Amino acid sequence: MRTKPVSRDSIFARTRDYFEHFAAATPARFAILIFAGFVLVFTAIFLLPISTATGEVPPLADALFTAVSVICVTGLATVDMATYWSPFGHAMIMLGVQIGGIGVLTLASILGLVISRKLGLRQRLLAASDSNPLRMNKGVAESQAVRLGEIGQLLITVALSVLVIELFIAILLFPRILAEGVPLGGAVYQSFWYSFMAFTNTGFSPTVEGIAPYASDYWFLSVLMLGVFLGAVGFPVIYVLMRNLRRPKRWSVHVKLTLATTLLLFALGGLAFFVLEFNNPRTFAGLDPGQRFFQPFFLSMMTRSGGFSTIDIAELNGSSLLVGDMLMFIGGGSASTAGGIKVTTLAVLFLASFAEARGNVAMEAFDRRIPGDVLRLAVSVVLWGATTVATACIILLQISGATLDVVLFEVISAFATSGLSTGLTASLPDSGVYVLAATMFLGRVGTVTFAAALAASQRRQLFTRAEERPIVG
């Protein structure tokens, strides 16, 4: 009796249906598994002899840390990225930051859109949860930056914006790099490298000297700032601005809060660094008046998640390190290449404080009411972020023996995927390297996503308990 052969198409279809169901049912766990899978793949790639400049197999700690830093678009490194890795390794780094910068969920949805030419409801919900964490917990929430029906257009916008913005930044950088005396081929390569690293907010450099040759060049540094800003505001904001750039009245509350908070923090951070480092001869005190004013604002933009630096971060005053801690912890916009708790999270917390101080029942911004579940999510983000940072600091303080200000800066830089370093990362033992790698992973995946993934399911409570008010404050 002959048995009917199993169709390869049916096996593929069943596997695809299983993953689609799993992704739609538990998008938080799906996100963690996909990111972890890419980290393992790139760790294996970096462990290959072809990935290193010497042809030797690197230590596991260095390969794993580099993979996490690349996929999480952090920019921290335990080795000299310019000399340690081969041209093949550098190509994998550029590929990895593109994957991590776009976001694995969004990338998977784009691939699904290309293959099927349409997005089903499950894929739309999955992509929507990537652009808005609230959808993960409560379905489609009200007053969102991007509506569910617009997700397909958002995905196209993501792909096009990445290509157009990175090409635009590379074109702006190319003449300056060429003028520095870099050969034509090298200038093209470095232009795209810096463009990728700026837009994805990573901060890796392709050369040993880094951006030192351009440390006082207004054009080069300004273009880097532009790339970091565009990557940090978030794809939903780019999508809305592309459609309604000249019609601010049609901008959503999310867009307005993101832009207003980002620009305000950039200005306040620059002014803080200007004042605190004004008399520091190791940083800005010895510069001419123009550079003395410009460089603090460049540092302010880079602490938001950019990762590039024209000075030795270890030479900053302790007060400036603390300001950098705060800016890094806040990070950039939601659904962006930046890390941190996000600027809208900070904005919502301040709006709640103002509403409470004025005795208002509801939070309001730009003539719109913000529902209470947004505040609960914001509090959760800050709480889990602070817990992650505190735990990592305690462990690294014990392992490294370094001072608190240095350890705190390094941990927040890892958690917020900023990439700025005081030099501690390169000197850590393997145990400390693994702690920082885990911190980067938690920061990139998202504390709320991670917390949601740990929950087995959401319970529906069909009753309400008696209300009692504890004393707060």
Automatic annotation (TrEMBL):
Name of this protein: TrkH family potassium uptake protein
Subcellular location: Cell membrane
The species this protein was found in: Glaciihabitans arcticus
Membrane topology reported for the UniProt record: Multi-pass membrane protein
Pfam families cross-referenced by the UniProt entry: TrkH
One GO cellular component term noted in the UniProt record for this chain: plasma membrane
Residues passing through the membrane, by range: 28-48, 60-79, 91-115, 154-174, 218-241, 253-276, 326-354, 374-399, 434-456
Keyword Plastid: no
Organismal lineage: Bacteria, Bacillati, Actinomycetota, Actinomycetes, Micrococcales
Principal subcellular localization: membrane
